[in-house]
Design goal:
Structural class of chain A: alpha/beta
GO molecular function (chain A): oxidoreductase activity
Radius of gyration of chain A: 22 Å
Number of helices of chain A: 17
CATH superfamily of the largest domain in chain A: Nitrogenase molybdenum iron protein domain
Distance between the termini of chain B: 38 Å
Largest sheet of chain A: 6 strands, parallel
Structural class of chain B: alpha/beta
Strand content of chain A: 5-15%
Number of strands of chain A: 14
Protein name (chain A): Nitrogenase/oxidoreductase component 1 domain-containing protein
Organism (chain A): Herbinix hemicellulosilytica
Oligomer: heterodimer
Helix content of chain B: 40-55%
CATH topology of one domain in chain B: Rossmann fold
Strand order of the largest sheet of chain B: 1-11-10-9-12-13
InterPro entries (chain A): ChlB/BchB/BchZ, Nase/OxRdtase_comp1
CATH architecture of the largest domain in chain A: 3-Layer(aba) Sandwich
Number of strands of chain B: 13
CATH superfamily of one domain in chain B: Nitrogenase molybdenum iron protein domain
Shape of chain B: globular
Radius of gyration of chain B: 22 Å
Pfam families (chain A): Oxidored_nitro
CATH architecture of one domain in chain B: 3-Layer(aba) Sandwich
């Protein structure tokens, strides 16, 4: 378990069944919950506007009652699955269990195997809430789909048979509010260096057909501080696909260039047929276009005489905490002060993340706290004060704290009722520019 | 007499206490009749995510100004509760709260090992930790499926903490699997509040009337003023102290009989606060009855008559003018029980045709056992029947099927997730969050004007219809709406 198991105030993550959103993010896939009646509502409410094709109130659910708790719910589940095929048009069904089914001990795997045996594209995965967080269960769900579904198509999809194709594992759908935009931007950037990326989630993916082609990819890319790594490890064993690991969200030019160069070198080593010169030219062009904007921006940043934030605290998952810290320090000139990782990072990954953040600057130390308990993180932040105008980047929970402290606030993490995100990306060159726009739109609006 | 036993920690669930059901297909009149002779619930052989009691108990406690709330379960069971922190903030100006404080919402974050060894010790520690952090005037502990099944002794843990900390530590039993009627969560919260917080009255205050409601606008202050009384809104935006002495009020009224059924009955039966024997004021006839009943309880019938006369003089011409414009428009309603009934009456009063309803559950009789409080019975009597009256606990597939068949001119919804389907079918759809918006004579004007606006401004839904994504099969849309309900052809 990644969480120390202490109490959590103001949660910024949810439980294992939250990975129903991993299913919702696959075009035309449906999560089927074998759970209590409230689980789906809790998850939909946590993420907000998260229905997708067949999530939220569309998702079938056995709605455990006292009867199922006492006698087991497997017959109920059978009925619900059978009728799901009649009522909903879907390409993939993923049965997720809740606490009730987990404790009662229903044999869901056998039942689902029966349906799969009849040729149905159906998968089961154990996601009892007390077993894991949604950051962890995201990997469980993806692995279950690979093992129980993708594997069925292996004969037509010879492992590593497409030299220039890669699988990308990055944002966790919905938990990363910018997942859709980020995946689209990664895909565009990777195409720019000559790689075809399976992004697997959202409108830029090819739905279940793309999932079927996962084995064909030459290698995999993992963009994450820790979550999703079990997927990449699993594929390495399963299909012999090596992976290159970039440990934080690449926001802005420095990190995006680094990311693309790392992938390019890895691709060449893996035997991909890419035109290196063309790829480098693409990166250079992207970077130049980006710096044209920063060039214009510099005048504003240096000359705006009425006050701009000079330091930032970020409460987010480790990928954003590190990615945004690096970006804001070097490319915007906002100094990262105390940072808070709220994603329940397992202890074994914490030092890697500390070191990654440490590498941001040789001349300054950026304190980092791993604190899943948002209330505690805020308590620490409440007692900290630095000179100048402060900025907090976090979830909706942090808005009130920012107000209390008189800081600027940018809503960029879930849960948040204060912001609508559709296809905005924070990753990549354009993502960096968007972060800048968002921060200063909010700052300048305080002068109205 | 209502089925209330405050010596027991757990409230009796609605299905047993008042014979509530979640599956029915027929018309409203039949349902009212059937309710008198004993309704039988019907199961479905297909179902979608319903929602559960825990978040309903949560909203009635999180919005108490000076309380903290602990969800005793895995972290997921507290994950949508941030929505109530937002609600508290946004609606606080409606209740004159200038500086809304952050809501204090915790999870004991139960892990797998806790499901093996039990979560009692963890909960005990959590309560003390929360108290030290918040210094709240009361701590509410909400149970969840996991805590319920592993059999944690939440009541004892809370009692021990209460003794040690010297503040009420209130266990609320609202596990999702216990009841198919999620409003049992309201009952669970009220039951525990009544057991642990509400005190025997020291006196009877003629200047205070309890209003059991959500977080709607403060319309009752104006209505009570001529009677020389002020509303005591419970439980959202109340304080722990304010709740304690809700037992001293002159009377209790409801914003929604489904919501406050249990608390109203408890206040009457256990603490001597009479519940006004009239369903909430939706529609002219019911508003007349409501003011009269209120006047009678307060011994000020003449004042009630005067209010009715004055208000009617002012609003009836406006209502008539709206009727002219709305007459014959076809409406469909989806909402929780009594509020849905209220909306149907408002629509009928405004001259619309009510073509059907998907109501989340049905209480054949409320806890006070008075027929005068039965909004549906009163409404059917005043305005006649409602066809296609479906009781369905937020089963979207049935709603989509019914809407597709009936194709009303306008869809009225009360809960999230439902208006989307009206819009996808090109039907102008309206969700009003403020439960007081359409109450009283003036409410008819408010609501009528909003309706006109919604029906008129249909460009967005007409465009959405052209591009709507629909996961439902063609086969399903052709089946009878109640195909999967017991007695239907598909079960």
């Amino acid at each position: 378990m990644s969480l120390s198991g202490g109490i959590i105030e103001q949660t910024r993550l949810t439980c294992a069944i939250g990975a129903m959103q991993t299913v919702v993010a696959i075009p035309r896939a449906v999560p089927i919950l074998h759970s209590g009646p409230g689980c789906g509502e809790m998850i939909a409410g946590f993420f907000e506007r998260s229905t997708g094709y067949a999530g939220g109130t569309t998702s079938p659910c056995t709605n455990f009652s006292e009867k199922e708790v006492v006698f087991g719910g497997i017959n109920r589940l059978r009925q619900i699955i059978e009728n799901t095929y009649k009522v909903l048009n879907t390409d993939l069904q993923v049965v997720l269990t809740g606490c009730t089914a987990g404790i009662v001990g229903d044999d869901v795997d056998s039942l689902v195997a029966e349906f799969a045996g009849q040729g149905k594209p159906i998968v089961s995965v154990e996601t009892a809430g007390f077993k894991a967080t949604n950051y962890e269960s995201h990997s469980l769900v993806v692995k279950a789909i690979i093992d129980q579904y993708v594997d069925l198509f292996i004969e037509d999809n010879v492992p590593r048979s497409e030299k220039n194709t890669v699988n990308l594992f990055a944002s966790i759908p919905y938990q990363d509010p910018f997942w859709k935009g980020n995946l689209a931007e990664y895909k565009r950037l990777l195409a720019g260096i000559g790689l075809k990326a399976n992004v697997l989630f959202g409108p830029e993916s090819g739905g279940v057909k793309e999932w079927q082609r996962i084995p064909k990819a030459n290698f995999n890319i993992l963009v994450s501080p820790w979550y999703g790594k079990p997927i990449a490890d699993h594929l390495k064993l399963k299909y012999g696909q090596d992976y290159t690991w970039f440990p934080h969200v690449p926001v802005g030019a420095n990190e995006t260039e680094k990311f693309l160069n790392q992938v390019l070198e890895f691709a060449i080593n893996q035997g991909a047929q890419v035109d290196e010169n063309k790829a480098r030219t693409f990166i250079k062009h992207q970077s130049e276009a980006y710096y044209q904007e920063i060039d214009n921006l510099a005048t504003f940043l240096l000359e705006f005489r009425y006050g701009l934030p000079n330091h930032v605290h970020i409460l987010h998952d480790a990928g954003y905490v590190v990615g945004l810290s690096k970006f804001l320090l070097h490319e915007v000139g906002i100094i990262p002060k105390e940072q808070f990782v709220t994603d329940g990072t397992p202890e074994k990954y914490q030092d890697l993340i500390r070191n990654d953040l440490k590498s941001t600057s040789e001349k300054r130390e950026i304190p980092i706290y791993f604190e899943t308990d948002g209330g505690k993180a805020q308590e620490i932040l409440r007692s900290i004060r630095h000179k100048g105008r402060g900025l907090i980047i976090g979830s909706g929970w942090d808005r009130e704290l920012a107000k209390e402290k008189g800081y600027d606030f940018l809503s960029a993490a879930v849960p948040t009722p204060y912001r609508l995100v559709m296809t905005t990306n924070y990753a990549g060159f354009s993502g960096g520019l968007r972060v800048i726009e968002d921060i200063y739109m909010m700052v300048l609006s305080t002068y109205a | 007499m209502a089925n209330i036993n405050l010596t027991l920690p757990e409230v009796q669930i609605r299905e047993i206490r008042i014979n509530s059901i979640t599956g029915y297909h027929g018309d409203a009149k039949e349902l009212v009749e059937a309710g008198k002779s004993g309704l039988k619930d019907k199961d479905r052989s297909f179902s979608q995510c319903m929602g559960c009691a825990t978040s309903k108990a949560a909203c009635m406690t999180i919005l108490i100004q000076d309380a903290a709330v602990i969800s005793h379960g895995p972290v997921g069971c507290s994950s949508c509760l941030h929505e109530f922190a937002f609600t508290y903030r946004v609606n606080s100006p409606l209740r004159g709260i200038e500086k809304p404080t952050p809501r204090r919402i915790f999870s004991t974050n139960l892990q797998e090992k806790d499901t093996v060894y039990g979560g009692n010790i963890k909960l005990a520690a959590a309560i003390r930790d929360v108290y030290n952090r918040t210094k709240a005037n009361a701590i509410f502990v909400l149970t969840t499926c996991a805590a319920g099944i592993i059999g944690d002794d939440v009541e004892s843990v809370c009692n021990e903490a209460e003794e040690e900390l010297g503040i009420p530590v209130v266990a609320i039993f609202c596990e999702g699997f216990r009841s198919k009627v999620w409003t049992t969560g309201f009952d669970a919260a009220y039951h525990s509040i009544a057991r642990k917080l509400i005190k025997k009255p020291r006196r009877r205050r003629q200047d205070m009337i309890n209003v059991i409601n959500f977080w709607g606008s403060d319309v009752f202050a104006d209505w009570f003023e001529p009677f020389g009384a002020k509303p005591n809104y419970i439980t959202p935006y109340s304080t722990v102290d304010g709740l304690k002495y809700s037992s001293e009020a002159a009377a209790t009224v409801q914003a929604c009989q489904t919501l406050g059924s249990y608390l109203g009955a408890v206040l009457e039966q256990e603490f001597g606060v009479p519940e006004v024997p009239a369903a909430p004021p939706y529609g002219i006839a019911q508003t007349d009855r409501w003011f009269k009943a209120l006047g009678k309880v307060l011994g000020k019938e003449d004042i009630a008559e005067k209010i009715i006369e004055e208000k009617k003089k002012e609003y009836l011409p406006k209502i008539e003018a709206l009727r002219e414009k709305l007459r014959g428009k076809r409406a469909y309603v989806t909402a929780g029980a009594a509020h849905g009934h209220g909306l149907l009456m408002v629509l009928k009063e405004l001259g619309l045709e009510t073509t059907g309803a998907a109501i989340f559950h049905h209480d054949p009789i409320y806890d006070n056992k008075r027929e005068e409080n039965d909004q549906l019975a009163m409404g059917v009597n005043d305005y006649g029947n409602v066809p296609n009256f479906n009781v369905c606990n937020r089963q979207e597939f049935e709603l989509v099927n019914a809407l597709n068949r009936i194709r009303p001119d306008v869809l009225l919804a009360r809960h999230g997730g439902m208006t989307l389907w009206g819009a996808k079918l090109g039907i102008p759809s309206l969700l009003v969050g403020d439960e007081h918006f359409s109450m009283g004579y003036e409410g008819l004007v408010n609501y009528g004007e909003r309706l006109l606006e919604v029906i008129e401004n249909d460009e967005f839904v007409k465009n959405l219809e052209k591009h709507a994504i629909n996961p439902y099969t063609e086969w399903w849309l052709k089946q009878p709406t109640y195909y999967f309900l017991k007695g239907g052809t598909g079960i």
